[in-house]
Design brief:
With 443 residues, the protein is mainly alpha-helical. It has 18 helices and 11 strands. It binds one RNA strand of 76 nucleotides through strand 4, strand 6, strand 7, helix 4 and strand 11.
RNA sequence: GACCCUAUCGUCCAGUGGCCUAGGACACUCCCCUUUCACGGGAGUAACACGGGUUCGAAUCCCGUUAGGGUCGCCA
């Protein structure tokens, strides 16, 4: 069988992570079976159907790396791929139902007369489920078209899936209960229903339904925060599915190889941004420096940071890279390398750069460092340790004032790496300023 | 309310009748890396919703209860 999957979002103004995950699994399934992944925009609701809202979806999928084989911007033999442009096709299918005697009018709307039978949904994820549709009271007839001529989701979705030869409908479990009615439509149209796979939904940490306002709900916030697409893909795959063997970090290629619809967990999953954050850090950590720097640039530029040479930038990024988990935090981590007017974190100053002790220690270190002939990691470290021993303090008690004086903050890359890059002149000047700062606070 | 789905650490997953005194990851706590840190290493806290069965044996199968989610739209 030729596998054709689809993602069929409606343009609501954002791409929800739940939708992104649905798209991802459809994409993976198509890839795994050498099939086709179709993107179709369900924009039958004209009131909220804006160009911008459509763009959000396309942008989100592009960013996640989920390229579609057929759809907007791409074309294909089963278009158009916007439902708003498919009216003629719907008319034709509607008249087919009409001829078959399946329709009736109700207050100007057109409804589908259910055969009133028991319908089995044989779901790839949920298994075989029986629905008893014999009672019209509990399972009312589907409306297909409104009095104003606009189309209802259930009908156009089925028509499009037939027309676009979709073989596997992989979608959220919120559609499960309507699926038997869709199957009735397929039958009335003389079409073979596709395979269905209903995925559990994504919930908030507390188990409540995830709404668009919740943190992490909109995919658009991920690139802004400095998540990388492969990390988000990795996280999303782990939500309801697992490669077994207790693996957490797994490439999309491997997921494609290992993926099975039947292995998708049936429970709803709570969305845990903490873990996504951690995974992002893992990807950032192992990323090669060239790409890392490339990704970093927009975040640095946005913060108004400039650098003398690309080489200098890469050098700074390389020592900071293992510790930063979100690209958007980068300016905070590297700004002071490129600007003498960097700000000071007051809490860090209060802790390590205040009072006569700080003055004494920093002065001692300044003296030792100004006497250094060679400015490298090893000499920086040994000079600091010797100084610490000489004045009888622990190394940490020199490290902290030095760090705050040199960078303005209490956390950062390794101190010696930092000072090496800063260079002797700038380091000593910053120590000098730090001493004055500490003197000022000691009064 | 009716119908459908689900039920393992706080969270995500592993576990498909004996290997489970339940494993991994995130988070949290502590220790180490005699330098911080959201790097790294180690340790720890912490769960089979409840009640009945079936079975020599159940987290795993069955029934019920409870809880959560979904659907029942002229929203998608």
């Amino acid at each position: 069988m030729t596998v054709r999957t689809r993602f069929a979002p409606s343009p609501t103004g954002l791409l929800h992570v739940g939708g992104a995950r649905t798209a991802l699994f459809n994409w993976i399934y198509a890839k795994k079976h050498g099939g086709t992944f179709v993107l179709r925009i369900e924009d039958t609701d004209h009131s909220r159907n804006t160009e911008q809202a459509k763009q959000v979806i396309l942008d989100g999928l592009h960013w996640l790396g989920l390229d579609w084989d057929e759809g907007p911007q791409k074309g294909g033999n089963h278009g158009p791929y916007y439902q708003s442009e498919r009216g003629a096709i719907y008319e034709e299918y509607l008249s087919r139902l009409e001829k078959g005697g399946h329709l009736y009018e109700d207050n100007g709307a057109i409804r589908f007369r259910s055969p009133r039978e028991k319908v089995f949904v044989d779901d790839e994820i949920c298994g075989k489920i029986e629905f008893d549709l014999t009672n019209p009271g509990t399972h009312p007839d589907l409306t297909l078209r409104r009095p104003d001529g606009s189309w209802i989701f259930h009908f156009v979705s089925v028509v499009d899936d037939i027309e676009m030869k979709i073989s596997h409908v992989i979608r959220g479990e919120d559609h499960l209960s309507n699926t038997p009615k869709h199957i009735e439509l397929y039958r009335a149209l003389g079409a073979e229903p596709p395979r269905f796979a209903h995925m559990p939904l994504i919930l908030n940490r507390d188990g409540s339904k995830m709404s668009k306002r919740d943190e992490g709900a909109a995919l658009g916030t991920y690139p802004e925060a400095g998540y990388v697409p492969e990390a988000v893909r990795n996280y999303l795959c782990l939500l309801g599915w697992s490669p077994k063997e207790n693996r957490e970090i797994i490439s999309t290629e491997e997921v494609v190889a290992l993926f099975e619809l039947g292995n998708i967990n049936r429970r709803n999953a709570a969305f845990d941004l903490d873990k996504c954050f951690w995974i992002n850090g893992q990807y950032l950590l192992s990323m090669d420096l060239a790409r890392y720097a490339e990704l970093a640039v927009p975040f640095l530029e946005k913060a108004g940071i400039t650098w003398p040479t690309w080489n200098a930038l890469e050098k700074v990024l390389s020592i900071v890279k293992p510790k930063v988990k979100l690209l958007k935090d980068l300016p905070e981590w590297v700004g002071y390398f490129f600007n003498e007017e960097f700000s000071f974190d007051e809490a860090a100053v209060a802790k390590s750069l205040t009072g006569p002790l700080a003055v004494e220690r920093l002065s001692a270190l300044r003296d030792a460092y100004s006497a250094l002939a060679i400015w490298d990691l090893a000499s920086l470290e040994s000079a600091l340790k010797e100084t610490a021993a000489k004045i009888g303090v622990k190394t940490g008690e020199l490290v902290h004032p030095a760090r705050v004086a040199a960078s303005g903050r209490g956390i950062g890359p390794g101190l010696y790496e930092m000072l090496e890059i800063l260079g002797k002149q700038r380091t000593l000047a910053r120590f000098e300023k730090g001493i004055i700062k500490a003197l000022g606070t000691s009064a």
